[in-house]
Amino acid sequence: MVVSETFSAKKVVQLTGLSSTMVDYLVRERFVTPSGSAVRGRGNARKFTFGDLVTFKVLARLLDSGVEIRRMAKGIRELQQALADPTHLTDKMRYLISDGRDVFLSEGETLENLTQSRQLAFAFLIDLAACANEIISARSNLPSLSLMKATSAN
């Protein structure tokens, strides 16, 4: 999905649920820079791209979860750069993962550490419920213990 429209700070507030004060703070502290503005500086309207809006929404969710975003600033800036290319906003760019300090971006089958200069990282996701169900299924296919004792006694 490619959205080439630019958005005002007022639209950012409406679309992300952040307050105008928080949007101003995030811009002032350079968590997000207005990528849609050709001219920057005092007196010029800030224009944000769709990728910027996604970055704001990520920040809103992190803040709602009580995450101290200052510790993740570098990773958030790298995320905004990755989202600057509208072709990145596909199903391949699926998950943002964080431990509250490092920020990882899942693209397809790769996991990049955005905090460590986009270094590839390894992660394993194991479905514990599936493991338990496999054991239960395998257990039900085993002969019962009493049947095993009877056949071994013969």
The strand order across the widest sheet is 1-2-3-4
What is the approximate shape? elongated
Determine the structural class based on helices, strands and strand pairing.
Answer: alpha+beta
Portion of residues within helices: 40-55%
Offer a concise description of the structure.
With about 150 residues, the chain is α+β, with helices and mostly antiparallel strands. The chain has helices spanning about 10-15, 20-30, 50-65, 75-85, 130-140, 145-154; strands spanning about 95-100, 105, 110-115, 120.
What descriptive keywords fit this protein?
alpha+beta; 4 strands; 6 helices; 154 residues; DNA binding; 4-stranded antiparallel β-sheet; 43% helix
Can you characterise this structure?
- By secondary structure, the protein is α+β, with helices and mostly antiparallel strands.
- The protein has helices spanning 9-16, 20-28, 50-64, 73-83, 128-141, 145-153; strands at 93-98, 103-107, 110-113, 119-121.
- Strands 1-2-3-4 form a 4-stranded antiparallel beta sheet, with helices on one face.
- Helix 3 packs antiparallel against helix 4.
List the helices and strands and how they pair.
Elements lengths: L8 H8 L3 H9 L21 H15 L8 H11 L9 E6 L4 E5 L2 E4 L5 E3 L6 H14 L3 H9 L1
Antiparallel strand pairs: 1-2, 2-3, 3-4
Helix pairs in contact: 3-4
